[in-house]
């Protein structure tokens, strides 16, 4: 059996560099690697509604933003199926059956959900849909018989729950579902890119993001105001690279060839770091280097986005066709699930014969 990818994002805003290093970049590589038979990329609007029920307009507006970001990064609709979660009703039915295989205490132990509950001040009143979204996510993954879920480390508990659900289902009803595996980013700095202010994560509400669709000028401003080493006051002072956002970003984005192109005084990141630590290297120079690297990355993305922005109906058409194709696949899995659970009554000649005998005595 072939290898299948399912992954996705909640459409709560435009995508930023954190998404890029955490997942988008990898997805495009995987798409173009030819190692996967099918790739499904889902815009998880239904999941986004689990904590945005009072603001559906936000989700509605951001579907197209996320789709544009995908296309801009090089997700190719002829190779990957991009679809909208809510348009695949089969996912809800699967989740409804999976709910019987998961306990409340198991959901309460999910560390990602725990953190999210705190972040959203949901402690005293958690929406049930939000609480159970790991189950819905297990449906997303298993509906497509995904073997591989490329995602950030925060998604690890979700994949673990999906695996448990698949295992439990298969144990009770017979081998039906595929147990997925997470595919984590391969570069340590990419696991979680901090915000430009040095805070743990990029987040719209903190205003510390660099968006893929930001203009050159916006990127320049963000880089130039990035958090560095607060004790590195004069150029000659020794600087710290640990917790220094500019260096964390360089770890994530800098390639050896960037030195020849933009800063031939150095030949490697290690050499640059050593100089900074020794003292005698100012932040502004390092920031300019980072800005050049980010611009090289973001310029083609920005340009491709501009092209797609000229034909929004075409983007919606891609989503519509993708959703139809996704629905057919999910319906197929759902039919197998129903048959494994033996709730496919009308296709079950054996049931009808058996019941006839029973009542005829
Ligand atoms: N939980 C993911 C996020 O917050 C989005 C998502 C929903 C997802 N269903 C998924 C990711 C299935 C991978 C697989 O970004």
Could you characterize the architecture of this molecule?
- The chain folds into two domains: 4-192 and 312-353, Rossmann fold (3-Layer(aba) Sandwich), CATH 3.40.50.620; 216-308, Tyrosyl-Transfer RNA Synthetase, CATH 1.10.240.10.
- The protein is elongated and about 95 Å long.
- The longest helix has 30 residues, at 312-341.
- Strands 1-2-3 form a three-stranded parallel sheet. A two-stranded parallel sheet has the order 4-5.
- By secondary structure, it is mainly α.
- 55% of the residues lie in helices and 6% in strands.
- The chain contains 16 helices and five strands.
- The mean pLDDT is 94.
- Helix 4 crosses helix 8, helix 8 (133-143) packs across helix 9 and helix 11 crosses helix 14 (283-309).
- The two termini are 46 Å apart.
- The structure holds tryptophan.
- Tryptophan binds at residues 6-10, 44, 47, 137, 140-141, 149, 151, 155.
Helix content: 55-70%
CATH topology of the largest domain: Rossmann fold
Q: Provide the low-confidence segments as ranges.
A: none
Tally of contiguous helical segments: 16
Classified by CATH, the class of the largest domain is Alpha Beta
Largest sheet: 3 strands, parallel
Number of domains: 2
Q: Given the C-alpha coordinates, what overall shape results?
A: elongated
Question: Looking at the chains present, what oligomeric state does this protein adopt?
Answer: single chain
- The fraction of residues in strands falls at 5-15%
What's the end-to-end separation, in Å? 46 Å
Mean pLDDT across all amino acids: 94
Query: Would you count the extended β strands for me?
Result: 5
- Bound heterogens, unique: tryptophan
What is the structural class?
mainly alpha
Q: Which strands sit side by side, in order, in the main sheet?
A: 1-2-3
């Amino acid at each position: 059996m072939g290898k299948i990818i399912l992954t996705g994002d909640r459409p709560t805003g435009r995508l930023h560099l954190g998404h890029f290093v955490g997942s988008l970049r990898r997805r495009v590589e995987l798409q173009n690697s030819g190692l996967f038979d099918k790739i499904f990329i889902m815009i998880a609007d239904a999941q986004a509604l689990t904590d945005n029920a009072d603001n559906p307009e936000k989700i509605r507006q951001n579907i197209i933003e996320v789709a544009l970001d995908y296309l801009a990064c090089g997700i190719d609709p002829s190779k990957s199926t991009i679809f909208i979660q809510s348009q695949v009703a089969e996912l809800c039915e699967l989740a409804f059956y999976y709910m019987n295989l998961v306990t409340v205490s198991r959901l309460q132990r999910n560390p990602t959900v725990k953190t999210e509950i705190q972040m959203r001040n949901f402690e005293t009143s958690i929406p049930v849909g939000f609480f159970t979204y790991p189950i819905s996510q297990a449906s997303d993954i298993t509906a497509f018989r995904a073997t591989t879920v490329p995602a950030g480390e925060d998604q690890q508990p979700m994949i673990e729950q999906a695996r448990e659900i698949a295992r439990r289902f298969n144990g009770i009803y017979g081998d039906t579902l595929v147990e997925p595996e997470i595919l984590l980013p391969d570069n340590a700095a990419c696991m979680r890119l901090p915000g430009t202010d040095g805070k743990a994560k990029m987040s719209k509400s903190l205003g510390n993001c660099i968006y893929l669709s930001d203009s050159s000028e916006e990127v320049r401003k963000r880089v130039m105001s990035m958090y560095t080493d607060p004790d590195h006051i004069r150029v000659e002072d020794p600087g710290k690279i640990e917790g220094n956002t500019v260096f964390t970003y360089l770890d994530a984005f800098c390639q050896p060839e960037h030195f020849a192109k933009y800063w031939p005084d150095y030949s490697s990141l290690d050499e640059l770091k050593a100089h900074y630590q020794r003292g005698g290297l100012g932040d502004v120079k390092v920031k300019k280097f980072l800005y050049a690297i980010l611009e090289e990355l973001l310029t083609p993305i920005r340009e491709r986005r501009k092209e797609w922005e000229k034909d929004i109906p075409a983007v919606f058409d891609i989503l519509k066709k993708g959703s139809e194709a996704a629905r057919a696949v999910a319906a197929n899995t759902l039919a197998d699930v129903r048959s494994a659970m033996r709730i496919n009554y009308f296709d079950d000649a054996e049931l009808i014969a058996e019941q006839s005998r029973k009542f005829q005595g």
